[in-house]
Amino acid sequence: MAVWTVSADVGTGAERVAAGLADAAGVQLLDRPALLQLAQELHVDLGGIEDVDELEARAGGALNLVACSMAILAGSGDAVRAMQEQRALPELVQVVAAAAASRPCVILAPGAFAALSLHHTAVHARLFAPFAWRVAQVQRERLLDRRHAEKAVRHDDRARRHWVHGLFGLDVADCRQFTVSVDASRVAPDRIVELLLAAAGAPAPQPVAL
Predict the structure, then answer these.
(1) In CATH, what number is assigned to the domain containing residue 22?
(2) How far out from the chain centre does Cα 81 lie?
(3) pLDDT tens figures, 27-73
(4) Largest alpha-carbon pair distance within the chain?
(5) Contacts of 82 (CB under 8 A, 6+ apart)
(6) 96 burial class (0-12, 13-18, 19+ CB within 10 angstroms)?
(7) What are 1-33's pLDDT values in tens digits?
(8) Helices 146-168 and 77-86 meet at what angle, rounded to 10?
(9) Domain-embedded: residue 151
(10) Which domain holds residue 17?
(11) CB-based contacts of 127: which residues, under 8 Å, 6+ apart?
């Protein structure tokens, strides 16, 4: 049973890779909304939070970071401490991560590699790229000027690093934590999908004759 976790720097096209991988493998993609829905289906106490928008609002916005196969947020230290005090986060980590990985799936979440480090069939993937290249991608994706794009990338990098380290004591940029680490600026998304399929021993999709 294959389970893939995808942890990615902002601007590396992780959403496209994760969706392509899930489609090629014929498994479910668990991104932020899907993980939040799963938590709700499991009756995990989210402190009254009912949707992703509300979750983002309580954490101060800019929620690109999902960790541990559930709605784990990137936010200020105050937001992190507030959720920890409510004891919502530990329950999310333990219950939702285990449920998400109980079947073949692709989990798009920066900290999922840590939450599922003992999962014997999981393939943990990390997508990274040079800072300047990622800034250019964010400029195009969010229609930002370079200064604001640089600020957004730095904020995302810092928040994700602090969050994962604070929760798991691990460095999200440490390639030793991952099965596969790929420079997204040098490898096309379709090739990354093929690489991750191969890492799990899954057959690559066959080309269709026209």
Answers:
(1) 3.40.50.300
(2) 21
(3) 999 987 887 777 777 766 555 555 544 544 444 333 333 333 343 33
(4) 58
(5) none
(6) buried
(7) 689 999 999 999 999 999 999 999 999 999 878
(8) 30
(9) yes
(10) 3-198
(11) 6, 7, 8, 9, 12, 13, 14, 17, 181, 182, 184, 192
